[in-house]
Amino acid sequence: MDKGLSLRGVTISKGGVPLLSVTHDIGPGKVLTVMGPSGVGKSTLLAFITGTLAPDFQAVGEVWLDGHEITHAAPHQRRVGILFQDDLLFPHLSVGANLAFGLQPGGTAAERKAKVEEALDEVGLSGFADRDPATLSGGQKARVALMRMLLSEPCALLLDEPFSRLDAERRSQVREMVFDRARARALPVLMVTHDAEDAQAAGGKIIRLGEANRCAEGP
Amino acid sequence: MHLTRRRFLPVLPVLTLLAMLGPVAAGLWGTLLPAFGHLPAAGLTGPSLDPFRDLFDWGGLPRAVMLSLSTGLLATSISLAIVVLVTAGWSGTRPFRALERLLSPLLSVPHAAAAFGLAFLIAPSGWLSRVISPGLTGWDRPPDILILQDTWGLTMTAGLIVKEVPFLLLITLAALGQADARRSVSIAQALGYGRLTGWLKTVFPRVYAQIRPPVYVVLAYSMSVVDVAVILGPNTPPPLSVQIVKLMSDPDLTMRLEAAAAALVQLGLVIGALIFWRLGEVIVARLGWHCIAKGTRGRFDRVVAQTALLGGGASALVVLLGLVVLVIWSFAGFWGFPDAFPDAFTLRNWMRFGPGTLDALGETALIASIVALAALVLTIGCLEAEYRYGLSFSQRAVWLLYFPLLIPQTAFLPGLQTLMLNAGVDIGRLPVMLAHLVFVLPYVFLSLADPFRAWDTRMGTIATALRASPDGVLWRIRLPMLLRPILTALAVGFAVSVGQYLPTLLIGGGRVATLTTEAVALASGGDRRAIAVYGLMQTGAALVPFALALLVPALVWRNRRELRHG
Question: Count of CB contacts below 8 A, A vs B?
Fold first, then answer.
């Protein structure tokens, strides 16, 4: 398979004890959800894919993205986007500058500014470019964080418990928006969560990790 | 570009260690040789024990040794007791926060300026005596009593205490953050313990384990300090450290042999005192366990806490009043005893000494900014290498940071100067900067390490996912977010460099004139107006960067709520 995100025989262990094993292809616009209680090492899978796995973990296996192996690529050249439960907007940059940080280089200042405005329009935050991110509500921050990531034109999107900090009402709203945008851009999505509702809403295949079946789906 | 960077960054931790430990090791070597009679520059080759024989023939030696020990042990234990008891009895209360706010800026007041302030305050003709005379005392001329430069070094000890209290308090506060003190004390109080006793029995052991290295630094420093000893210490005989400097500045090169021998004795004294202190810790810990097992709830908490607060307040007040007296003297016209204030205030002193201080200020600022910047670059390099490659200082290696501060300056700086003399290296500004770096680096590192490591690394993951390179993450995200702690670390480094006396004097060969060397040189002359002007300039040079470190982030981030107070 060419397009999409493929995990081939990925096993992550700590101190010789295997935490999880995954082999799976995620097609463009498809979602894979990895579920499990906190503490089983779900997030280490995402860290392995982004290339930021802490040195006390060991990993084997390959990660392929759109037909290229990225297992050993430099983290910033992998084109893998990620969203965490916290928005992690850069506090020293305005909302617009946060988006411009994500926007790929190129274009005149005016063109870039227009693209930032357009992204803000898309998520109903027109005119927010000069705001201090600290003055935004939780839902607004989540939307800015999403658009910032999308502007960097990733080829896959990873979600690390992305909605768990939002209240019930905003939660479904933001969740829908994230999955819509990912589908519209034909991005393969890998989500880790402990929340069954998030997993259901994702609508894709679900892998469950836990004490009993840590290796729910292995090679 | 990337390849060279990748090779460059891992080198920085090595370079940092070299900058900190190299001069110390070289200096100790350079002390060892002449101490055993080997000094080619003076045409002498060893080995011989004559230098030690000369030293032991000096009648003042026993007294000098005693002074070194007594000032060190007294100053350290009293300032530690004040800080621990004040924190135990008052942390989290309003008086404590007031004291904390009062003491933090005092940390950056150079030792020499604080010592001059104390001298002008408590001398027989000082401000305190003027304020109560002749009304309370009947004195119409300064009484003939020995307060300054007393034979026992008590005034000198007091001068050290008032400067070490703010240092130890801030160190303790930093350690408290990790000790979960509040909950421990609540539990103890619920079990019927007094606040102070509860704190001592539950929190102190954890806190002391953290502040132990800086406490050792205070001990080593107090035993071997030179500038405070020149200003407040006895003359006949002087403390050992001052005697070493006297011998070193003798035009007769052979006197350096005796100086080197004395430097080794000083080193041995400090090592001995550190071992003694360590044994004291064991004994105190034993007594502490015994006391905990007995379950006493603390009947005297109130009295002890109030006494300690009084001590802390007094030490802050002494430094502050000292600065006030310096200000008064710097503007004083004729001021006869026992008037509480001068007859007239005038700008004449500033006009007269101002231009001289400006030259010294230029030299001071040049050295301090380059040294502080170099220390900052090395520190950020070390911390970033640790983040990127996991090249970290282990817990034990943290002692390496304290090493240059534990070896008495008087033990290795004379050797460094002698080495340079033998090698024919020109003394001057650059070697002075390298010598300052030895003392500035640890403080800059200790000041920046915690905030740098506390930075949320997910910010880095996000920025990397947004396709920013490692350098891009550092320059565009991490450093801007850490602007405030970075500027604070720079200010700390600047203040440490401004306050350096002995490295500037010895390594500069008397040719590098900073505010500190000029001010201390004025001590023997006794011109209070000149001393006041120089002392205030010295204080200003150390304080202004701290003010900027507060002001600049507040301005730059005035529209960024999360960083304004961070």
Answer: 74
Closest residue of B to A160, CA-based? B458
Tell me, yes or no, whether A215 lies in a domain.
Answer: no
Pairwise CA distance, residues B237 & B62, whole Å:
9
Chain A residue with Cα closest to B472: A76
How far is A193 from A204, CA to CA, in rounded Å? 13
* Residue A154 with chain B: CB contacts under 8 Å: 465
State how beta strands A156-160 and A189-193 pair. Answer: parallel
Q: Is B299 left (phi over 0), alpha (psi -120 to 50) or beta?
A: alpha
Q: What's the CA gap between A116 and B497, in Å, rounded?
A: 47
Residue A214 domain flag: no
Q: Please, are residues B393 and B401 in contact by the beta-carbon 8 Å criterion?
A: yes
Q: Are A198 and A163 in contact (CB under 8 A)?
A: yes
In whole numbers, what is the pLDDT of chain B averaged over residues?
91
| Sheet containing strand A31-35, strands side by side | A80-83, A156-160, A189-193, A31-35, A205-208
Q: What is the pTM of this model?
A: 0.91
- Which residue ranges make up each domain of chain B? 62-328
* B523: phi then psi, degrees, rounded to nearest 5: -55, -45
CATH number at residue A72: 3.40.50.300
| Tokens describing residue B503 | 């490295």
Taking the CA atoms of chain A, what radius of gyration do you get in angstroms?
A: 17
Q: Is residue A193 domain-resident?
A: yes
Q: State the pLDDT at residue B510.
A: 83
Residue of A nearest to B386 (CA): A55
Peptide bond preceding B134: is omega within 30 degrees of 0, i.e. cis? yes
- CB-nearest to B467 from A76, A92, A134 is A76
Of B468, B469, B557, the CB nearest to A92: B557
Number of domains in chain A: 1
Torsion of CA A22, A24, A30, A36, to 10 degrees: -20
End-to-end CA distance of chain A: 17
pLDDT at B6: 56
**Length of chain A measured in residues:** 219
Q: By residue range, what is the domain housing residue A136?
A: 5-208
Inside any domain, residue A148: yes
What's phi and psi for B390, nearest 5 deg?
A: 65, 25
pLDDT tens sequence across A57-97: 999 999 999 999 999 999 999 999 999 999 999 999 999 99
- Interface probe, candidates B466, B564, B565, chain A, greatest A C-beta count within 10 A: B466
Closest of A173, A138, A165, A154 to residue A82, by C-alpha:
A154
Average pLDDT of the segment spanning B442-448: 94
Amino acid at B61: L
Scan residues 129-188 of A and list those with Cβ closer than 8 Å to B: 132-135, 148-149, 152, 154
In contact, B281 and B219? CB cutoff 8 Å = no
Rounded to whole angstroms, how far apart are CA atoms B155 and B526?
17
CA B138 to chain centre: 40
Is B62-328 a domain of CATH 1.10.3720.10? Answer: yes
How large is the ipTM? 0.89
CA–CA separation, B346 and B538 (whole Å): 21
Check: CB of residue B482 under 8 Å from CB of residue B451.
yes
pLDDT of residue B75: 97
Q: Give the contacts of B499 (CB within 8 A, at least 6 positions apart).
A: B110, B111, B112, B516, B538, B542
